[in-house]
Amino acid sequence: MDKPIATGLLAYGMSGKIFHAPFLDKHPGFKLLGVLERSKKNAQADYPEINSYDTVEELLNHPEIELLVINTPNNTHYDLAKRALTAGKHVLIEKPAATSVDEARELFELGKQLDKQVMIYHNRRFASDFLATKRVIESGKLGTVIEMHLRFDRYRNVIGPKAFKETAIPGSGILYDLGSHLLDQAISLFGKPLSFQKTLGRYRPGTQVDDYAHLHLVFPDRLNVFITVSMLVADPQPGIVIHGTNGSFIKSFCDTQEEQLIAGLKPGDQGFGEEPTGKEGRLTIVNSDGTKTTEEIPSEKGRYMGVFEAVFQTLKHGKEFPVREEDILEQLGILGK
């Protein structure tokens, strides 16, 4: 049996507590060894065997730790990942990988020089709504896809308490924060867009960062993909709308894993990742005689654990990590221009 990968977390806020620690703890291929907690010491209450450290240097210098999860504010990813690689650690970096193409490219090149893996965490490739959508597209039932809309809607008409998200620094704003999820989904489905147009807006009183963003991506075969993220949508719209030459597919934005994790459910618990009734997608197909057939498409079971299984397979068995270097460089080229 493979020896578990000794892993450290660089933060234990919502990201560490909800999106990383539960999966690292449950996956037998990892040993969650240490976490950085500069002030509040909460990790040991959840994981009594974990070590809590006060400084980045303690984690970087820990001889057993092989993998560091860089789940800190966006503008710190580059520096901390570079330090971790130089210290001989593999890295799993929260999205966005960095604040620019040049930063990300340097990290990938440094990883190659040091024979260390640079992997980027994009959990929404394993969200229930996206998995169901991918299955519909791959089935061919829609015919040739000509138009796709991806939305991430929220309503928060106030300035949030996290300064790194609300201050005009590199990597801040809703496009980097939420838009990177949807942009990654589009690139994972269709590859590199031929062109794009971008619109950013600031609407909340006193905001320093964009709280609205819209992308229009043009892919080969005249496929148009529209991405919209907003902090001011009181009535969220369907998160996924696709039109093809044979029909349409509409799916609400959903993935119950985050809510379940916040409520205390763990990966592997009964019902984890399963969407409640009423979240089915609607597939409408126009038949050869002009009649329409509509069917409900149930959500796939959400499985954020897929990210960590991919990390395990990459580090232990040399398999290619599914979020490729070229995907990330293309994504950052769009986010940053």
Assigned CATH architecture of the largest domain: 2-Layer Sandwich
State the distance separating the first and last CA atoms: 46 Å
Number of strands: 14
In the CATH scheme, what's the topology name of the largest domain?
A: Dihydrodipicolinate Reductase, domain 2
Beta-strand content estimate: 15-25%
Short description:
This protein is an alpha/beta fold.
What does it look like?
This protein has 337 residues and is of the alpha/beta class. It has eleven helices and 14 strands. Strands 8-9-10-7-11-12-13-14 form an eight-stranded mixed sheet, covered by helices on one side. Strand 11 (240-244) and strand 12 form a beta hairpin. Helix 4 (77-86) runs parallel beside helix 5 and helix 8 packs across helix 11.
What would the keywords be for this entry?
single chain; 337 residues; alpha/beta; Rossmann fold; Dihydrodipicolinate Reductase, domain 2; 2 domains; eight-stranded mixed beta sheet; six-stranded parallel beta sheet; 11 helices; 14 strands
Topology overview:
Blueprint: E1 5-9, H1 14-26, E2 30-36, H2 43-46, E3 51-53, H3 56-60, E4 67-70, H4 77-86, E5 90-94, H5 101-114, E6 118-121, H6 128-139, E7 145-153, H7 163-166, H8 174-190, E8 195-201, E9 212-219, E10 223-230, E11 240-244, E12 247-251, H9 257-262, E13 281-286, E14 292-297, H10 305-317, H11 325-336
Parallel strand pairs: 1-2, 1-4, 2-3, 4-5, 5-6, 7-10
Antiparallel strand pairs: 7-11, 8-9, 9-10, 11-12, 12-13, 13-14
Helix pairs in contact: 4-5, 5-11, 8-11
